Amino acid sequence: MGDYMNQNKIGLFSVIVIAVTSMVGSGWLFSAQLNAQLAGNYAFIAWVVAAAIAIIVGLCFSRLCTLFPERGINAKCTAVSHGKDFGMIFAFAIWFGLLAMIPTEAQATTQYLNPFIKFITLYEHGSLTIAGKLTALIILLVYFMINYFGIKLLAKVNNISTVFKVSIPVLTIIILLVAHFDTTNFAIDTNKYTFGTVKTALIGAGLIYAFNGFQVVAAFASEIKNPKRNVPLAIVISILFTLGIYMFLQLAFMGAIPGEIAAKGWSHLNFNSPLVNLTMLLGLNFVVIALIADSIVSPSITGMTYLGACSRMLYAMAEQRQMPRWIAKLCPKHNLSKRSLVINFIISAIILFNSSSWAALMVLTTAFNVLGYIGAPLALGVLDKKKRIFYAVVFVMLALLLSTLNMKDFILSNLAISIMMVVYAGIQLKNGKRFNLRSFSFIVYLWLLMLIAQFNWAVVVLSFAFFFYATGEQFVQKSKKINRLEPASI
C-alpha cells in the first residue's frame, strides 16, 4: 500500500501547474476592468501588493506543511495549535471560502457564454437565469467526475489544459498591445486615485481572489513529493508567474480602451464581459473566439482544482472530529475521501442556485478566504515561537485587508462565522462533549474589528493585542482540548 501511495504523489512541476491553474481562472476575465475602476493607474501597484500578500501568507502555509505535511493542513492548523474548538472557526472559513469559489467559476463560464448562445438566455438583468444555473450545474458535474478518479487524473488534466489556459491570456495581451495601445489613457484621472485606493482594490477588484489558488498547494501537501522543498517553491514560483500575466494584462487592457471611452474616466467602464466586449469593439473577432474557448477552460480547470482541494479540507476537519467522523474515510485506490467529494459537490450546487452572478459571490468569498489565511499566523505564533513577531505582523496585515470590506459583506461574513460556531457548540454539548468558550474570543474580535474598520491605527492596536493574547501560553493551554500532533520528520 505504501508503494502505491508514493506512486500517486506528484512532483514540483505538477504542483506549480495546479497552483497556476487555480490562479488563472475567472479572475483574469474580470479583474482588469474592476482594478482599473477602483485603482486607476495605481492598478499595477495593487497587483504587486496582492502578490506580496499572497507570497507572505503562502510561506506561512508552507512552514505549516514543513511541520505537518498532512492532508488539508491549512484547514486544521489552528486545531493543532489551539485545539479543535478554536480551530473550527478557521477551518470553516478556509473551507467555505474555497467551496464558494467553485460555483463562482461555473458562473463565470456561463456568463461569458451567454452572448453567443442564441437559442436560450443564460444571463440577463445582472444574474443567471434558471437555464443558466442548470448549465452551470452541468459544469459542476464535470468538475466532480474529474476529481472522482483521484489526483493523478486531475494533475494530467491540469498539465494538458494549462498550456492552452495560459496561452490565451498571453495571446490576448500581445494582440491588444499590437492592435491598439494609447499611452494618453494613463494620464486620465491622475488626481482621482491615491495609494489609498490600492487597499480598496485588493478585495473589491478581486485581486486577492485571483491569487487565492496558492493555498491549494497546502491542501495537497500530503500528496506532493518532498513537501519541505516543493511546497514553498511551488507557491512562490506560481505566484510570480501569475503576477506577470496579470500585470501585462492590466497594461494591455487599459492601453487598448478607445479614447472616447477612456476620456469618461476609469470608474465609468461598464463592460459585462470585459475582454470579449473590448476585443469586439476593436474588431478583433478571431480573438473573441479564443476568449470564449478560454472562458470555458480557465474557470473550469480552476473550479475542478478547488473541488479537489475542498474535499481534502473537509476530510481534514472530519479527521480532527470537527465534522462527522464517517467523512474521514479514504478510497484506497484513488487515495481520497469520496464521501467528502460528494458533500462538497452538493453544497456547491446549493450555493450556485442561491446566488446570482460572479460579482455577487466574489467579495464575500474573498472575505472567507482572508479569514482562513488569518489562522496560519495564529497557529505559527504558537508552533514556531522564534518568529512570533513576524507572524504578528502578518496577522495585522491581514486584519487591515479585512477592514476594507464594505459593511454589508462584513456583517454577512461575521454573522455566518458566528452562527456556525453557535451551531457547532450546540452539537458538541448535545453529544455530551464540553465546548471551550474561549473559542468565541475570535468572534468578539471580528465584531470589534468591523466597528473600528475605518480607523487603521485602531485596527493595528486591536489586532496586535489580540494576537499576543491568543498566542499566549495561558490562553493556548486553556483553549486546547486535544493533544498537539507531533511534528513529522521530513
Automatic annotation (TrEMBL):
Keywords: Membrane, Transmembrane, Transmembrane helix. Coiled coil: none annotated. InterPro entries: AA/rel_permease1 (IPR002293), AA_Transporter_AGT (IPR052962). It is a multi-pass membrane protein. Its main location: membrane. It comes from the Bacteria. It is found in: Membrane. The keyword Membrane applies. This is Amino acid transporter. The chain crosses the membrane at residues 12-30, 42-65, 86-106, 126-150, 162-181, 201-221, 233-257, 282-315, 336-353, 389-405, 411-430, 442-470. Signal peptide: none annotated. PANTHER family: ASPARTATE-PROTON SYMPORTER, PTHR47547. The lineage of its organism: Bacteria, Pseudomonadati, Pseudomonadota, Gammaproteobacteria, Thiotrichales.
